Structures are given as structure tokens and as C-alpha cells.
């Protein structure tokens, strides 16, 4: 069974679609990051395991989910219905191929917008700039710091990720590259999110995320 970590902040509207599309063999773990709506109740009502992460922060929620996961392999994806859980089996199949050499692997979902407004220009530009900086520092060839990911749980914990904000996804790639992991990406559909955006849908949210990631770029030596 593969645990799917879903960091969640006020996603009660999106969760039913996400959870009803979870493939067989994938176990949803909704990490409630101090939501003020009915996210936890909705998630539990749709059969998800709910874990509380009272300290706000994307990285804090991801880390809490990683600690609570039980499977050998974990996936991480947004809970806002911008990503389709139906893509998860392709992600883990790509991870299996990377791991054939014996080293841990990390696979990212490279976003392909499928609807108007799915990926605003300011967010796409910020992502492209960060991806180029990451590739120069870590020797990777990624085109997207995609929020849908798959990796071995114990190996992720061993990376000892420290960021608890928006820099967490970038730190994961930097530390995995430094540890010699094979890193790959596959195309996944990227839909307009359900509900209000906290990050990429707003200029302010994007600026905060880029600032956190730039800080991680300076702090983590590849």
C-alpha cells in the first residue's frame, strides 16, 4: 500500500473529488494544517486517514505526513483538485524504474496545464527561474518543481529536510541530488484548482514561495 500525503489547508470543497479518484493501492493521508473549515470532517467521511499538523506551513504539513505514513513508498500531492490522483500509478511506475539500480529515487510530476487559469503566468515564470537555478546548482535537468512526487519513505526521512515552509519541495530535490539519487519527471495534467488559492493563484503567495525557495538555495549546498 502506498501512502499519499495530502497537505491540506481549507480544502473541504476540493477533497471529495480528490479522494473519490484515489486509485486502488493508494491510501490517502490528509494532513490538516490548522484548517478553519470542515476539511478534516470531509476527509474522514471519504475514508481518508486524517493527521493534524497544527503548526502552519507547507513543509510542516508534509513532514508530519511523512512521519505518519506507513508504506515503503510515499507520494505527495496538493489537495486542491489541481492534480489528478489517477496519475499516481504512472508516477510510482517511473519510480520503480529509477530504483532498479539500487539507489533511492525521486520522481516529480511535470505540470501540463489543461484548463484556463490553471497555471498563471507569474507562477509559471517563478517556477522556471527556480528550476534553472536548481539545475545549475544540483546538476539536474528538471523543467518543473512539480508538487506531485513519489519517493521511498525511509530515504526521504534520512535526508533530514529542515524547511517547514514553501522551501520544502526545493530542499527535497537539492538534498536528494546531493545524496546521488536518480531524479526524474513525467508529465501530469494540471487543472484549475478548486477554491481560493493560497500560493500560485496570487502574486503575493508566489512571491512568498519564491522567497522561501531562494533562501533554501543559498542554505543547502548541493
Total count of strands? 7
Percent of residues in beta strands: 15-25%
Shape: globular
Tell me the major beta sheet: 7 strands, mixed
Series of H and E elements: EHEHEHEHEHEHHEH
Strand order of the largest sheet: 3-2-1-4-6-5-7
The total of helices stands at 8
Q: What class would the helix/strand composition place it in? A: alpha/beta
Alpha carbon gap, first and last residue: 32 Å
- Output the radius of gyration: 16 Å
Low-pLDDT residue spans? none
Task: Chart the SSEs and their pairings.
Blueprint: E1 2-8, H1 15-20, E2 26-32, H2 39-45, E3 49-52, H3 58-68, E4 73-76, H4 88-98, E5 106-113, H5 121-138, E6 149-152, H6 153-158, H7 168-178, E7 183-190, H8 203-219
Parallel strand pairs: 1-2, 1-4, 2-3, 5-7
Antiparallel strand pairs: 4-6, 5-6
Helix pairs in contact: 5-8
List keywords for this structure.
222 residues; alpha/beta; 7-stranded mixed β-sheet; 8 helices; 19% strand; globular
Written overview of the protein:
By secondary structure, the chain is an alpha/beta fold. Helix content is 39%, strand content 19%. It has helices spanning 15-20, 39-45, 58-68, 88-98, 121-138, 153-158, 168-178, 203-219; strands at 2-8, 26-32, 49-52, 73-76, 106-113, 149-152, 183-190. Strands 3-2-1-4-6-5-7 form a seven-stranded mixed sheet, sandwiched between helices. The N and C termini lie far apart (32 Å). The model has no long low-confidence stretch (mean pLDDT 91).
Amino acid at each position: 500500500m502506498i501512502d499519499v500525503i495530502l497537505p491540506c489547508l481549507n480544502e473541504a470543497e476540493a477533497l471529495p473529488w480528490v479522494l473519490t479518484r484515489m486509485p486502488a493501492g493508494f491510501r490517502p493521508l490528509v494532513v490538516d494544517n490548522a484548517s478553519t473549515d470542515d476539511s478534516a470532517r470531509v476527509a474522514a467521511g471519504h475514508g481518508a486517514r486524517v493527521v493534524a499538523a497544527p503548526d502552519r506551513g507547507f513543509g510542516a504539513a508534509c513532514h508530519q505526513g511523512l512521519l505518519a505514513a506507513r508504506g515503503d513508498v510515499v507520494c505527495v500531492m496538493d489537495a486542491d483538485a489541481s492534480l489528478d490522483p489517477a496519475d499516481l500509478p504512472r508516477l510510482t511506475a517511473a519510480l520503480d524504474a529509477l530504483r532498479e539500480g539500487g539507489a533511492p529515487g525521486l520522481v516529480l510530476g511535470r505540470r501540463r496545464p489543461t484548463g484556463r487559469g490553471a497555471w498563471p503566468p507569474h507562477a509559471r515564470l517563478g517556477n522556471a527561474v527556480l528550476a534553472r537555478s536548481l539545475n545549475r546548482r544540483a546538476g539536474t535537468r528538471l523543467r518543473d518543481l512539480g508538487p506531485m512526487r513519489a519517493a521511498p519513505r525511509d530515504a526521504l526521512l534520512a535526508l533530514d529536510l529542515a524547511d517547514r515552509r514553501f522551501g520544502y519541495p526545493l530542499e527535497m530535490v537539492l538534498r536528494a541530488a546531493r545524496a546521488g539519487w536518480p531524479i526524474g519527471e513525467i508529465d501530469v495534467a494540471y487543472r484549475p484548482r478548486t477554491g481560493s488559492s493560497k500560493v500560485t493563484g496570487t502574486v503575493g503567495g508566489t512571491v512568498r514561495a519564491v522567497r522561501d525557495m531562494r533562501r533554501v538555495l543559498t542554505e543547502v549546498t548541493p
